[in-house]
Specification:
Length: 427
């Protein structure tokens, strides 16, 4: 665990700044009001730290990722930020990340990103394997955080992000919320998970000391996982991480990825969740801007309920897990997949389903999205967090019901980005 890993770093100057970024003519430099460090002109503005997550695209290696960026991200950029650089959230599987780091081509990749005007301000380190295989379901929660391969993968992403980011810019990496909740981890597994995360925090602190780069890894609560609510994250920090760990490193380098869709599915109140993190001294490092499916049966006639139930069944596809929470007069009931809810519960109350739909959709047919939760998060967040990394994450474009699919994926993603940019995003 304490071994030094091979580093595929870019050529640097005497201050450790990657030389390729010093040559970027489109990025004039200025002094950041917030930190006093040198930042580019756009790094204090929206588009350098707002992007979409590329886990929507399949890619087994960097070459496949580059092809997808050329095919989709550059066309999104043309519609969103034609004349200036734009942030992008990179997803690299464990195989792709290892191939890239050991290929000796990291500098070429950084140069390509510079020339393309794409800034990889955030990475999605949640899916370890093939996120586009025929059936993903529970496999996306492997390996867990008590498995050393999860630590190795995340540390590799840290090194790659350090090499690919412009000088002076912070990086964020979202990660698995420890693991799926069943079976319940043993005491030893909890201890191993905590030890791995503590080691990661120490590693990130060394990166900052030696390289001057602040990178934070953000645990992403998800319905059905060991961390599914804000209270679970607070308990993790207070019960497992802080005791015996370096508190300064943990609080600075281990943060939360607040996925708005996930929080909405759990019927969390956005402001209350953000306030809970703040009260516990846990920073939100990244917000994944996303929307779930909502069926408000309690507001419908019996005929409309039947129509809405049929439409909801069209989201019951076989690749991804679609956790569903039903709220009615009896309380809340959790189902780990939509199919189980459809089989067990009549159309009553409100159902929220973990299916990332395009965020510009408010209503579609008899169903709605939880788009209003995005706006609630934006209204509340500045009272509780200094977060400035925003990642639009709609990975389910390829499995949407036919009537919601976009024939031009880049156009659909750009429409999401432009919708989000029209909102009152905190500076």
């Amino acid at each position: 665990m304490g071994r030094r890993r091979p580093r595929a770093m870019l050529p640097t100057d005497a201050k450790g700044i990657s030389r390729v970024w010093l040559l970027y003519p489109a990025l004039p430099r200025l002094r950041s009001r917030r930190t006093g460090e040198l930042y580019t002109d756009l790094m204090d503005r929206d588009l350098a730290t707002i992007g979409y997550c590329t886990n929507v695209h399949a890619g087994a290696d960097w070459e496949s990722t580059r092809i997808n960026l050329e095919r989709y991200a550059l066309r999104v950029k043309q519609r969103v930020a034609a004349e200036r650089p734009m942030g992008v959230g990179l997803w690299l599987s464990a195989v792709a990340a290892e191939k890239l780091e050991t290929s000796g081509t990291v500098g070429e990749v950084a140069s390509w990103l510079v020339n393309a005007g794409l800034i990889p301000f955030t990475f999605n380190g949640f899916p370890f394997g093939d996120f586009h295989q025929r059936v993903v379901k529970h496999a996306v929660y492997e390996p867990t955080w008590w498995d050393s391969s999860r630590l190795d993968y995340t540390m590799r992403l840290v090194r790659l992000q350090d090499s690919l980011l412009p000088p002076g810019m912070e990086g964020s990496i979202s990660t698995l919320p420890i693991g799926w909740s069943k079976p319940e981890p043993t005491t030893q597994q909890w201890q191993d998970a905590a030890r791995n995360l503590q080691s990661l925090a120490d590693y990130l602190a060394r990166i900052e000391t030696e390289r001057g780069r602040l990178i934070y890894v953000c645990l992403e609560p998800e319905p059905g996982c060991l961390l599914q609510r804000c209270s679970d994250v607070v308990e993790l920090f207070e019960r497992h991480l802080l005791p015996g760990g370096n508190e300064r490193a943990i609080r600075r380098h281990l943060r939360v990825c607040h996925d708005i869709c996930h929080s909405a599915v759990m019927f969390e109140h956005q402001e209350q969740a953000l306030a809970a993190y703040h009260a516990a001294g846990i920073e939100v490092g990244k917000v994944q801007v996303s929307a779930a499916v909502s069926a408000r049966f309690s507001d419908m006639t019996s005929i409309d309920c039947e129509s809405a139930r049929r439409q909801l069944a069209s989201f019951n596809e076989p690749r991804y897990l679609h956790q569903t929470v039903v709220r009615d007069e009896k309380g809340y009931k959790f189902f780990e997949d939509l199919s189980l809810a459809l089989d067990a519960v009549p159309a009553q109350g409100e159902w929220r389903t973990h299916f990332h739909v395009p965020i510009y959709l408010e209503k579609f047919g008899a169903l709605s999205s939880t788009q209003s939760e995005i706006q609630a998060c934006l209204r509340a967040i500045r009272s509780y967090s200094n977060v400035h990394h925003w990642e639009v994450e709609t990975y389910a474009w390829g499995v949407l019901p036919d009537e919601l699919k976009q024939p031009d994926l880049a156009k659909g993603i750009a429409e999401e980005m432009n919708w989000f940019l029209r909102q009152a995003i905190p500076a």
